[in-house]
Amino acid sequence: MTGAGAGDDEGERLARAALTRVLEPGEERGGRWLREYGAVGLMRMLTAPGAEAGAPAGVGAERLAGYRRRAALADPRRDLELAAESGGRFVCPGSAEWPTQLDDLGDARPVGLWLRGRPNLRTWALRSVAVVGARACTPYGAHMAQTLAAGLAERGWVVVSGAAYGIDAAAHRGALASGGATAAVLACGVDVAYPRGHAGLLGRIAGQGLVLGELPPGSHPTPSRFVLRNRVIAALTRGTVVVEAAHRSGSLVTARRAQRLGRFTIGVPGPATSGLSAGVHELLRGEAVLVTDAAEVVELVGSIGELAPERRGPVLARDLLDPDAARVLEALPAGRPVLAEEVARASGNGADEVIGRLYELHSLGFVERQGDGWQLSRRTPEGGTQTGTVRRGGR
After folding, report:
1. What ranges do the domains of the chain cover?
2. pLDDT band at 303, cuts 50/70/90?
């Protein structure tokens, strides 16, 4: 029996739940053993007594002893009960709720995922975007993360982040405030409030969305688990948006892992002088795509036709003039009236044509008649289309 495709088997599920206490997240050696022996076979190998015990390939005696100590203490049924008491559950590869994009991680794929929240993870992950960034963010960064997340949620996208202080929290709050969907990927047990200051936020996420992680109930985070957690965020989502990150930020690890997995890597620019945006700017000089709002993110990660609106400055009445009329207008000097013949020489047009154009411009409010001469109006038309405007390409 192999690990892949056996997630609906109760023995495999129990074995994988137990292995979340044995193997560290992202441990590729353990992933290789799972592929070779299956979860049931691996647990049997690690828990068999004395002479009956086998040894997985490629592990020393001391490390193997550590695995066996952990395996002997694992109680998957108790962990499943603890998860259920807090409204949680356990899903693993092959089960109906497993998001198959995590399989792109190969042997670093999670053994399984512990979840809190009602939504179906597989369904949510199909239309999800990660929004990550600095913990010690600026007000600008928090505003951008919250605004982006709210915009994504309003467009039907699930906002995924890590529930940390700073950008992560702003992203979750933006999605929640808009009544949208958000999921938090933790580096600890889903029943552990970390950071403690986010106990209320995590409760709201679990109530309205999903809290998930690789570690069993009661597990606490370590620095390495935070780094390894990032690969799940990158693999789970269609793209990763980085809002503020210094050169050594863990958010850059997430973004680069997303890029290696073939996901979109996206950055929000900040001030050129801001050290908290330096890492984002480095991404933007390389593999990342610059965005400024949710519509531009969706244009990248969404389906065909989900385009951001065209960006342009205000349209002025002068912009809509026929090229010949515009050339006549440009030939008029400022501050004094001139005869039509002088305008004709300056514009390179015939005198009769210039007179016709001057009357057109007069009717639009661009020029005034002063005796035999013409001059620019003291009040020129402002932006927008007016009745009778001469458009480019014709009258």
Report:
1. 10-75, 112-301, 317-376
2. confident
Number of other CB atoms surrounding residue 305 within 10 Å: 6
Kindly state the greatest CA–CA separation across the chain. 115
The CA distances from residue 383 to 315, 380, 389, 395, in Å, are: 5, 10, 12, 18
Q: Is the pLDDT of residue 50 over 70?
A: no
pLDDT at residue 304, rounded to an integer: 61
CATH 1.10.1660.10 fits 112-301, yes or no: no
Report whether 161 contacts 132 (CB < 8 A): yes
CATH class label, 317-376: mainly alpha
- 0.85 exceeded by the pTM? no
- Tens digit of each residue's pLDDT (9 = 90 or more) over 178-227: 999 999 999 999 999 999 999 999 999 999 999 999 999 999 999 999 99
Q: Residue 305 — pLDDT band, cuts 50, 70, 90?
A: low
pLDDT band at 159 (very low <50, low <70, confident <90, very high): very high
Task: Answer left, alpha or beta for residue 156, where phi above 0 means left and psi between -120 and 50 means alpha.
Answer: left
- 97 closest CA partner among 129, 124, 128, 127: 124
